[in-house]
Amino acid sequence: MALLEVRDLRVAFPRGKSDEVEALRGVDLTLDKGERLGVVGESGAGKSMLAFAILNLIAEPGRVSAGAITFDGENLLDLPDRKVRRIRGNRISMIFQDPMVTLNPVLTIGTQMIETLKAHRRISDRAAHKLSVEKLKLVAIPSAESRMDAYPHELSGGLRQRVVIAIALLTDPEIIIADEPTTALDVTIQAEIMALILRLCRENHVALILITHDLGVVAEVTQRLMIMYAGKCVETGRTREIIDAPKHPYSAGLLKALPQNAERGQRLYQIPGSMPPITALPAGCPYNPRCPRATDICRAEMPPLEGGVACFHPLTAEEEVTA
Amino acid sequence: MITWRGVLRRFLADPVAIGAGVVLLALVLMAALAPLIAPQNPYDLMQLNIMDSEMPPSWRPGGDDRFLLGTDAQGRGVLSTIMYGTGISLVIGIGAVTVSAVLGITLGLLAGYKGGWIDSFLMRLADIQMSLSTLMIAIIALALFQAAFDANIYAEYAIFMLILIIGIAEWPKFARTVRSSVLGEKGKEYVDAARVIGLPARKVMWGHILPNALTPVLVISTIQVAEAIMTEAALSFLGLGMPTDKPSLGSLIRSGFEFVFSGSTWITFYPALVLIALILALNLLGDWMRDVLNPKLRRGED
Amino acid sequence: MTDPIVETRGLEMRFALPTHFLSREKPVLHALSGVDVAIRPGETFCVVGESGCGKTTLGRAIMGLLTPSEGEIYFRGERIDTMDEAARKPVRADMQMVFQNPYASLNPRRNVFETLAEPIRHLMPEKSGREVRAQVEEVLDATGCDQSWQRRLPHEFSGGQRQRIAIARALVTNPAFIVADEPISALDVSIQAQILNLLTDLQAERGLTYLFITHDLSVVEHFGTRVAVMYLGQIMELAETETIFDDPKHPYTQLLLDAIPKLTGGSFDAPRTPGELPDPVNPPPGCPFAPRCPIAQDICRAERPRLRVIPGSTTEAACHFAE
Fold first, then answer.
1. What domains, with CATH codes, occur in chain B?
2. Of A90, A156, B224, B262, whose CB count within 10 A is highest?
3. Where are the domains of chain C?
4. Do B189 and C100 make contact, defined as CB atoms within 8 angstroms?
5. Is C10 within 8 Å of C72 (Cβ atoms)?
6. pLDDT tens digits, one per residue of B183-202
7. Per residue in C295-306, pLDDT tens?
8. Res C21 pLDDT > 70
9. Contact flag B193-C65 (C-beta cutoff 8 Å)
10. Residue A280: is it exposed, middle or buried by C-beta count within 10 angstroms (0-12/13-18/19+)?
11. pLDDT band at residue B1, thresholds of 50, 70 and 90?
């Protein structure tokens, strides 16, 4: 049985007095123990919404309007708040883009780590301190012992994100959800942090949901991949296979538009237009206005997700998307 | 982005805002149309008759139908004096805010944009002035003015003096507000884009930064009008404001105050009621505007 | 070799940090320490580096947004950093800038026409109202903007559309040289290709010279003619794009290239040691990269290496040991 299984997850926000718009429009997802899954999409595609929904953290006035999130045999949406809190931050941890979301600027690193531990475990202060230092060493923070007394602002951006990872690892979670963990960081620091996350997941057999807009990072770190567009998953499958031979015209377009995949000095392949806002989606497939392969059926019906791709005219292995 | 249409829509959806708006509009109209609708002209000495003094409101025994809310010690109809007095209070309030807004916006813009010693100097000046209360400055200035000139000249120029003194005393509030929003705006790239084409600092400040820094000024202006009217009322109550022959709401309250214990409460009561309604309406509107215009408090829209 | 269109000689930029007025120390941040670049007409000169390396400061100094502490800036052989405003006016029409954040670079209270007309009105006051309108229409066409946008306000547009408008504003005075400071890093992946293509097309049509500032090496590889790699206010390596990617000489360039996530995957498998940018207020006496450098020797910590041509190549590198 999968460790985490999400079925037909929908998140809705009120529009006006009686109307609602869906930001997440029926997303399925399975995650096995120790598996690394990448969720890729543009801003507004709903990828962060997915993470927040799994953790039951959708802010008012939004709400999960349908679906099931089964973690270890229990539907998180049916559990009382008290029980969800025992899972969130304990068995499922989260790393945000901005370390200061997790870190409290007026408390020392040590205080925050010990508090996190004590919130989920019966543990003495001394044991919590010892465990915290261990975790800081695990994420390769130099002079870990003395960093326990440091305040977040005394650390550089890279070190802060390492501390956040150490906090996420404190409770030995089964799943880590990382929402753009390196977007705010420099390239060399990004490489360090991603290599660290990758090693930790492998060594401790932790499952990872990595939310990002960067296909390169996904290719480096994840085993499976999910590509989202306008609140829906348009393609899912093994990372390697999608990157080598994407089936959905959107995935293919995204990959082809990357400068790495273009001839030096030549024009890049470009997807025309931009993603429609969730409040103004076209009928049928949400990608159809930008899709070079769209036909009448695409403008009338939403293609179902079959064989890992939600498209009426998927690309075959030899085909390339053309403008 | 806040549009006029959006503000109007939110105004119409908020009963408190509508209520305050209606009260304010009624008072402004009453004051503006006073010469047309007031039963008497309290400034016209020919119309006054000492025999009419201290009449109670018309529904009380001894009342007169000509004077709905009674008369004061000089035989002026309380209703008419309130109508004219509201106008004078509003003129002083709006005038004082105009003075402090012009001063405060200019100096705040300069301090925020130029920075350095200009900023330090202007802000320390503002700090010093803020540490002296407006009322204290006004009392000293007006007492000197009253002592230096005779009563006729004082009566003639009192309104300008009040506007000027209250206006100058309140500039630091505007300057600080403008300065802080200028500091937020000047780091934005559209300001750099304007500087790249070589626009002089004056044009960058007034043409680009100021329009984007004005929203909070709008909010404090409304509340400052209320505050200026109150300051004027307090000064008049102390006998340092408008003279009794051109009364503002404050001087009306004062002139009736001597008669409160002799039972003629209406001379003070009705002007006070109008003053409270005016201040309350302005403050409620100011609060409402702050909520609407402050994007940090807005959710789920735009 | 042709004369450079823009040249800097020994450019230094120091910022005094705010302190308490009683404190004796006057800390100074060295944003640029001795930068020489010579940008040739028609090329795309890329400046790459991580945050805090001084790449944005360099662009802003050239545009006159910052006054250099020391050094000289030339445009077409004329020294511009000491020019008075009247003499500089014609030069300004020839130098323009595109900013990183299209959400902040357009004045929210001005419609597109006013935004585009302002540079013409200020820099070319001899133009009549009709000429201004014609020029605005022409530049809207050239940048793929619709004429109907003229009376609309920035908040009505998406990020990609705003960046087009920002590019149109930079082009409206027909400049020869454009500083583009991270023009695509705030945009979504599918929009980045559109903007890069637009910049490529405009360069071909108008013979523009770009100073392209970015942290993204994959964009540089595709887009650049020559590349300067910066670190802590200094140029570490300067070479033709192909050369630098095929044969990086400086250890820092190698580290940067190694940090790019690759679609082929596998390069994050080895653990990386955390590296931090040295404090720019107290830079190390020798090579700024020495504390992170795998081949650093004693001389690197004592003596700052000068930019020199590496024997047997066209690359210039600031390293004692590069070969």
1. 4-36+72-297 (1.10.3720.10)
2. B224
3. 6-18+26-246, 285-322
4. yes
5. yes
6. 999 989 999 999 999 899 99
7. 889 999 899 899
8. no
9. no
10. exposed
11. low
